[in-house]
């Protein structure tokens, strides 16, 4: 018959507390050792600096690779959208415009890929009769990261007339260069 006595539970608690104390002491001791070595050993400092440089260089390379991949994806999506074509009938154009704007708004608020959201706004822009006015509206309503991607899409496609006169004096801050 195995019954737990108060001395057994105290000893179990004492063992757990001792193990926790040893672990905490080890962590503090290592931190003190690491700090001492970092302050007093020039070779160790050089090693830490080299590691930090390697890490930052790797992060930079990853960021550049991600940026290149995103630009390639944007170009591919714009080309695909232009190859698929756009409706020309006024009723179909209006319906297509409303559908793409709604999809873009949904995609921009639900946290999905910002490139896909920008593509929806781009498709709507392609069928809108006065693109400068729509860009001005986008500038006020579309989140900045998506707006930046949309600006890249507009820069890729020379068929969108964003220069010239408009009813408003400033068509927004999308820079397509």
From TrEMBL:
Keywords: Coiled coil, Membrane, Mitochondrion, Mitochondrion outer membrane, Protein transport, Receptor, Transmembrane, Transmembrane helix, Transport. Belongs to the Tom20 family. It holds the Pfam family MAS20. It is found in: Mitochondrion outer membrane. The chain crosses the membrane at residues 12-33. GO terms for cellular component: mitochondrial outer membrane translocase complex. One of its GO terms (biological process) is intracellular protein transport. Gene3D superfamilies: Mitochondrial outer membrane translocase complex, subunit Tom20 domain. InterPro entries: MAS20, Tom20_dom_sf. It comes from Dissoconium aciculare CBS 342.82. It is a single-pass membrane protein. This is Mitochondrial import receptor subunit TOM20.
């Amino acid at each position: 018959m195995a019954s737990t006595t108060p001395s057994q539970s105290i000893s179990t608690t004492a063992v757990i507390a001792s193990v926790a104390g040893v672990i905490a002491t080890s962590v503090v001791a290592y931190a003190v050792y690491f700090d001492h070595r970092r302050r007093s050993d020039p070779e160790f400092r050089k090693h830490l600096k080299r590691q930090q440089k390697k890490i930052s260089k790797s992060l930079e390379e990853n960021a550049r690779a991600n940026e290149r991949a995103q630009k390639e994806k944007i170009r591919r999506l714009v080309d695909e959208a232009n190859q698929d074509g756009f409706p020309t009938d006024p009723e179909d154009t209006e319906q297509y415009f409303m559908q793409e704007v709604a999809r873009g708004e949904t995609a921009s608020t639900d946290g999905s890929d910002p490139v896909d959201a920008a593509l929806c706004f781009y498709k709507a822009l392609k069928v809108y009769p006065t693109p400068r006015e729509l860009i001005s509206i986008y500038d006020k309503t579309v989140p900045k990261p998506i707006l930046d991607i949309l600006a890249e899409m507009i820069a890729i496609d020379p068929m969108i007339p964003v220069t010239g006169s408009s009813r408003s004096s400033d068509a927004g801050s999308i820079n397509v260069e």
